[in-house]
Structures are given as structure tokens and as C-alpha cells.
Give the backbone structure.
Amino acid sequence: MNWSAYLAVMGATALKFIGGPLTGLALGLTWYETALCTWLGMMLTVSVVLGLGHRLQTWYFKYKKPKGLVVSKRLRTAVKIWKMFGIQGIAFMTPLLFTPIGGSLLALSFRAPLLRIWTFMAIYGAIWALALSSLMLVFRINFPY
């Protein structure tokens, strides 16, 4: 057990999801260690962001009047995903398009229930962690360094 390697994978995942499997590959972790630490890193980040973000959002709308949004290409894409697929689409695309922090904040901004956000983030985070860790395993086998 190399706790520092596990924490490195979890920290890399917190910033950008693909960073977890890449870090696991670089540190020589096994497939299941990489997948588990990647998933745990995302879910830890999602849990913290949902907890703090919900409190901040509640406070903000209680005391402040919201202003207009600055529309960007990324925001338009997020709104299209939300209109077509709802929270499931946001959770599915979080590891690929958004960061765990960004996807959680985006889901909060659409005012989805916290338990639903956490559940779908957990499901799709596990699927993507397994898929990307498997891809890194194939990469390690075909291109040993």
C-alpha cells in the first residue's frame, strides 16, 4: 500500500478527471487501485463542492439579487446537455468535458436535488473511472516504458 500514490491519484482526479488514470499509470499502480482512487477522488471532490456550494448558493439567493449570466460557448453546451438529458447528461459528461468541480457546480446551478446529483455523479464517475483505467492498462501493456 502506497498511500502517497493513492493520494496523488485522488488529487489529480480532483483537478481533472483524466489526471487520475494518467497518474496511476505513471506511478505504476494496478488497474483496480487506479480505478478506485480515481473514483474516490472524484466523489470526494463532488461531496465537498456540493456541501459548500449548496450553502453558498442558499446564502447568495437569500441576500443577493442574481445578475444576468455571461453567455459563452461552454455555457451554451451545458444548457443543451441539460435540456436534452438533464442531470444524467451533466453527470455523464463531467469526467470528459467538465472537471469534477465544474460539473458539480454546474449541476448545482441548475438546482437539481443534491442526492440526485451525488448518485448520478457516483454512477457515471465509476463507469468512466473503470473505462479510463482500462484504457491506461491497455496503454501500459502495448507501450511499456
Remarks:
- The two ends are 22 Å apart (CA to CA).
- The first helix runs from residue 3 to 15.
